[in-house]
Amino acid sequence: MEKNKGMSDVLPLDVIRRIFLRLPAKELFRLRCVSKLWHSLISDRDFAESHLNHSSVAPSHSCLFVNFLSVGYFVDVDTLAFKELSLPFSRKKRSLDFRVLGSCRGFVLLNRFPHFLIVWNPLTGSSKRISYSHIVSRSKIPGLNFHDHALLFGFGYDASQDDYLVVLAWDNGKHSQLHVDCFSLRTNSWINFDAALPKPFGHKMWESRGLFLHGAIHWLSCYGAYMNAILIFDLKEWSFSTTSIPVKHYNWYSDLTLLGGCLALFSYDHVGKTYIWVMKEYKVTSSWILMYAIPCFKIVPLSLSNGSDIIALLSTTKLKFAKYNVSGELLQEIDYPPLCYRPNRNFLTFFVYTESLLPFPADTKDKDKKKKTGM
User: Fold this and answer.
1) Which residues have C-beta within 8 Å of that of residue 346, sequence separation ≥ 6?
2) Which residues have C-beta within 8 Å of that of residue 206, sequence separation ≥ 6?
3) Half-sphere exposure (CA, 13 Å, Cβ side) for 362?
4) H or E stretch including 49?
5) With a threshold of 0.90, does the pTM exceed it?
6) Which 3-state string (H, E, C) describes 131-198?
7) Cα–Cα distance between 148 and 155 in angstroms, integer?
8) Burial state string for 301-328 with b = 16 or more CB within 10 A and e = fewer than 16
9) Of 108, 157, 190, 319, which is most buried, counting CB atoms within 10 Å of its CB?
10) CB neighbours (10 Å) of residue 159?
11) pLDDT above 70 covers what percent of the chain?
């Protein structure tokens, strides 16, 4: 009697691979346990890279939230489904330990009290803890931590070196020279250098949280010499540059986000509207387009849905997610009681990321060593 045949017995491996490239990362992670062949294919670094590149055409977005008790929540931004997550290296007693700092290629950067960073892939569970205690001791800022005291911080990927970099900038309160420390995940080491900016800068002149796009980290200016500018740090060249924003925002709150693979700027006016500009061509200032004028105050755009609808976070006494079309009309609104926060203790932090199967660079290197030594 002929036994039941599986997909691997019927389809060539190349066809299976092409099918897998079209599946969401979370589904593939579950499918690893089906067979040794599938586990080997899905766990392969080259396949994970191809899958991430393929997903970038029509990406699905997730968001990690950490509330004031350091409880983590995963939210699928496309379906608005959520679940609680266990944070890596967390203590049994819940406390104000964790803040979300950034994301890059499926990895999330966390700050953990008192002076640790954690790079974590929430899908695969792989994580790495990084100490920056030596920077705290070198600086003159008591109890320095990324979230509260850094002038700039960011997390990105240098494709030329296949390396993930954590960037921290601080000035010791003298405002004359910027000290930049970069941590390389590939070499597992910190590198310090003094970076020259085109003009003098002032204390807390930037929104310190950076966004990674096109091999660089981007920050929006708050005030000072770079008013109406975006500061850019190239992770390959390790150099700073600037580009202009579409509007003056002396009296508006503004911030950066990423929408549809483009830089976007959102601002609040004084009559209860949120405006969203999108830079259609990277670093081309004339390509800024006002895409949305939403009649709601203090929304945070998270991602695009169906190519043009905005998924946004509403900050009130409790958190809500909302969907708006290009005309600014409200299409959907959902309350999330588990994500409630205290307005007078605004410790909720979050960051949007795209799920991936990618391992750390060090993981790949260690596997290569084992192959060579026959381990």
Assistant:
1) none
2) 151, 152, 219, 220, 221, 222, 226, 231
3) 12
4) helix 45-55
5) no
6) ECHHHHHHCCCCCCCHHHHCCEEEEEEECCCCEEEEEEEECCCCCCCEEEEEEECCCCEEEEEEECCC
7) 16
8) bbbbbeeebbbbbbbeeebebbbbeeeb
9) 108
10) 10
11) 76
Comparing C-alpha atoms, which of 371, 303, 243 is closest to residue 60? 303
C-alpha R_g of the chain: 22
Angle, vertex CA 187, rays to CA 185 and CA 189, nearest 5? 80
Query: What SS3 class is residue 14?
Result: helix
Residues 65 and 116 sit within 8 Å (Cβ to Cβ)? no
Lookup: tokens for 363: 């993981």
**For residue 134, what are its two tokens?**
């030596």
List, for residues 302-349, the tens digit of each pLDDT value.
999 888 899 998 865 567 888 999 999 999 888 776 555 544 445 678
Q: Which of 41, 53, 33, 43 is nearest to 17 (CA)?
A: 41
Report the candidate in 371, 364, 366 with the shortest Cα–Cα distance to residue 48.
364
> N- to C-terminal Cα distance for the chain?
40
d(C-alpha 23, C-alpha 55), whole Å: 9
Angle ∠(47,31,304) on CA atoms, nearest 5: 70
**What's the order of all strands across the beta sheet hosting 229-234?**
211-213, 216-220, 229-234, 239-244
163-197 per-position pLDDT tens digit? 999 998 876 655 556 678 899 999 999 998 766 66
CA distance 98 to 116: 10
Contact 229, 237 (CB under 8 A): no
Contact 162, 122 (CB under 8 A): no
